[in-house]
Design a protein that fits this description.
It is a single chain. By secondary structure, this protein is mainly alpha-helical. It has one domain. The chain has 14 helices and no strands. The two termini are 34 Å apart.
Length: 336
C-alpha cells in the first residue's frame, strides 16, 4: 500500500501526538501496579459489557438504516458500519467514514453521494449527544449544588438544538442560498468546503418527516446509553466504588478527545483522556490506565472483527479499499 509524501506529512503529526501521549501515560504509571491491576481486576461484568457494546452497534446500524430510508438490509448496513470502523482503526484521516459510503454504494443501489449526507447527519447527532452528555454529567462530577436541575436544563438545550435541526431540515434550500451569499461577503467562509455544507443540508431532507427524525434520534440515544453502561461495567472491574456519572463524563470526554489528530484508532488519545479524567476522581494512574487499555481494546476488537468479516465477505482487500477510497475522496461532487 503506497502512501504519498503529502499524505505522510499529514499523518506524521497525528502519529507523533499518539506516541507522545502513550509514552507520557505509561511513563507516569507504575508498570508493576499496572500489571497487577490488569491481573487482579474483577471482570465478572465484562461479558455483559461486551454484549451491550455489540447491541449498541446494532442500534447505530438501525439509526443509519433509518437515515438511508430503509433502502438497504440491516445486515448490509451493520456490516458496512463495522467495515467503516475497522478502516478507521487501521487508516489515517478517518477514511472509514468515506469508506463505508463507498462500500455501501458497491453492494446496494444507493449512490456514494446519496450516502455521504446520511453519515454527516449521523455524526451531527453524535456531536449533539456527546456535548449534551458532557454538560449534563459535569455538575454531578464537580459536585455542584442542584446538579439535577442543571442536567434538566441541558436536556432543554438539547430539545432546542433538535428543534433547530428540524427547522433547518425544512428550510434547507433557503439556508444553502443564504450560505452562498455569506460566502460572497465573507471570504473566510470560502475556506469551508462548500460540498460538505451542501451535503449536510441535503442530508437533512431525510429527517423532514417527524417520525423518521424521532426514530433516528431514539436509536442514537439508545446506542449512547448502552455505551455509557458498557463504560461503567468495565470501570467497576477496577473501581468498585465508581459512580455512573464518572463513566458518563469519561465517555463524553473521549468522544470529544478523538477529534484531536492521532494515529488510527485514537491510540494514545483515548488512554491519555481517561487517565486524566479519572485522575479527577482520585483514581490512581495505573488503575486508570489499566481501565483505559481494557475499554479501548474492547472497542478495537469488537469493531474490527465484524468489519474484517464484512470485507472478506465482500471480496475486498485493505489495499484496494484504501486506493479506491482515497480516489473517491478526491473526486468532486457531481452537479445534480
Amino acid at each position: 500500500m503506497r502512501i504519498e509524501i503529502k499524505d505522510l506529512r499529514r499523518i506524521l503529526p497525528g502519529i507523533l501526538i499518539s506516541l507522545v501521549l502513550l509514552v507520557a501515560v505509561f511513563w507516569s504509571a507504575n508498570l508493576g501496579d499496572l500489571r497487577d491491576e490488569l491481573l487482579n481486576a474483577n471482570y465478572r461484568y465484562l461479558p455483559v459489557a461486551l454484549v451491550l457494546f455489540i447491541i449498541s452497534l446494532f442500534a447505530r446500524a438501525f439509526a443509519w438504516r433509518t437515515l438511508l430510508e430503509e433502502k438497504a438490509s440491516i445486515k448490509r448496513v451493520f456490516l458496512t458500519l463495522t467495515e467503516g470502523y475497522f478502516l478507521n482503526n487501521v487508516f489515517p484521516f478517518r477514511l472509514g467514514e468515506i469508506g463505508r459510503a463507498f462500500l455501501l454504494s458497491r453492494t446496494t443501489s444507493l449512490r456514494f453521494w446519496q450516502i455521504i449526507p446520511t453519515i454527516v447527519i449521523e455524526r451531527s447527532f453524535d456531536m449533539l449527544i456527546v456535548v449534551s452528555i458532557l454538560l449534563a454529567s459535569l455538575p454531578f462530577v464537580v459536585g455542584v449544588e442542584g446538579a439535577g436541575e442543571k442536567a434538566a436544563l441541558v436536556g432543554g438545550v438539547v430539545a432546542v438544538g433538535l428543534g433547530v435541526l428540524y427547522v433547518l431540515a425544512h428550510q434547507r434550500k433557503r439556508v444553502i442560498v443564504l450560505y452562498h451569499h455569506l460566502q460572497a461577503r465573507f471570504p473566510i467562509l470560502q475556506k469551508i468546503a462548500t460540498s460538505q455544507i451542501e451535503s449536510f443540508f441535503e442530508g437533512l431532507a431525510v429527517i423532514t418527516n417527524a417520525g423518521r427524525f424521532l426514530k433516528v434520534f431514539g436509536w442514537m440515544l439508545f446506542a449512547w446509553a448502552l455505551l455509557i453502561v458498557h463504560y461503567y461495567l468495565v470501570l467497576l472491574a477496577f473501581v468498585p466504588e465508581a459512580k455512573l456519572a464518572w463513566a458518563t463524563f469519561g465517555i463524553s470526554t473521549v468522544g470529544l478527545g478523538i477529534a484531536i489528530p492521532s494515529a488510527p484508532g485514537g491510540l494514545g488519545v483515548v488512554e491519555a483522556t481517561l487517565v486524566f479524567v479519572f485522575g479527577l476522581f482520585a483514581v490512581s494512574r495505573s488503575k486508570a490506565l489499566a481501565y483505559s487499555l481494557v475499554v479501548h481494546s474492547s472497542y478495537l476488537l469488537l469493531t474490527s472483527l465484524p468489519g474484517m468479516y464484512g470485507l472478506m465477505a465482500d471480496g475486498e482487500s485493505l489495499v484496494q479499499v484504501y486506493r479506491n477510497v482515497r480516489a473517491q475522496a478526491q473526486k468532486p461532487k457531481p452537479i445534480t
